[in-house]
Specification:
The chain is α+β, with helices and mostly antiparallel strands. Helix content is 18%, strand content 31%.
Amino acid sequence: MTRRFLAVTVCLSATLAFMVGLIVAGSLMPSRAVSAPERVVSAARISAAPLPAGAPSFADVAERLNPAVVNIDATTEGTRVRPRVRGVPLPDAPPDLFERPQDRDRDGPRRGAGTGFIIDADGLILTNQHVIDGAERIMVRLTDGRTLRAQTIGSDPDTDIALIKVESSRPLPFAALGDSDALRVGEWVVAIGNPLAYEHTVTVGVVSFIGRKLFDSSLDRYIQTDAAINFGNSGGPLINARGEVIGINAAISSRASNIGFAVPINQASEILPQLRDKGYVSRGYIGVMLRDVDPDLQRSLRLATSHGALVQDITPGSPGARAGVRTYDLIVAVDGAAISGNDELIQLIASRRPGSVATLDVVRDGRSMSLPVKLAERPARAKAEATSAADRPSPSAARTTPLGILVRDLDGDFSRRLRLPDGLEGVIVSRVEPLGPAADAGIERGYVVLEVNRQPVRTIEDFRRVTAQGRSGDVFTLYLYKPEIEGGQRALHTVKID
């Protein structure tokens, strides 16, 4: 009995000691510091949006739209060379318009492949102007295997849009046009085309940017996308997730992959009636050279507002000249509608019918006035022609100025070599200091300085007198004549002294 009692006692004592140890250990665990703050989620934090129910199926979009997409084969005689880009090729490698490089045989017929899409059951097809430009024969291949000859209905080089038509014995499938103005950055888009002769290739991406300027800052409103597009996609549709065409694929970046650009479909819809009815697009024109007002220009010219478009030059005999528009006029509204800047004014005037009258609200030397202008038809864009190095003036011995340029008097020899207008008075820029204020402002050798801060400059002495007192932080507005642009052009440049 004694041994059994002793064993039970030992077991009970061990169990009790173990339980007491657990209690003591728990009481020794460190508690949360009183000073430690509670974790708070900021109210400004953006939470992830829930995935939308029934996300779009790109397979469904491609299946619906593919029958409306066509392959275009444009043939041109070998002795005729079609231009690759609209307007003037830019020196910093602009986006390339699509073109098949292997079809550049100048000795035989030149063939170019592109894409288009049918927009009505009668066979009207939208594509790019550069796809069919100069083509003697245009063949269109449909998804049902038929190949039909197309005729050009109309084209517009300024927006790179063309309208062609095929005749079919039965109604054709066509694509629905969407609203590109409702497009948002980050939205899913689908491209369908014939890149590198791989017909009806479907790629998917997002809208990367809206309103990109590439060739003509006044008219361009390109949609940028990372959907994979390549040579042969030109003229094909860019489609939203609802299966509506919201753009016409037109260009790719020459310096990076998966950076493509499309003409907004609303821009095409605006000119479709003119293309269909008369084959070309008429746009309003007032004949003035404009620029936006930046803080430096506003400060230098003491302008009361930065809104509007400042007149830099007026084409002789143009509607603007006949209406009395002057250099330094600030156009702030058209027919009472305020404008924010240069591009908006040009787009507004270009949308008007030639022959109509537009009333410009102008601020001149602090005074407001209205000028009615009868619009003319906007002329075709001229190509810039660079002045050769032999025609550039040589450096002079004139001492430098705070602006970082050397000038010399404009004599008859320079006037003849640069083909300057008769009676043009000013001084010619003979040297621009690298990394100087004038170089930063884009001023080049050969420019003629006509005015500085609205003060006429006819001699070197005039130029020195106006600029010699310039100090760091001062801003000068130079009124320049640029002879290297065909026909010459006057422009305002602001130069801020470092």
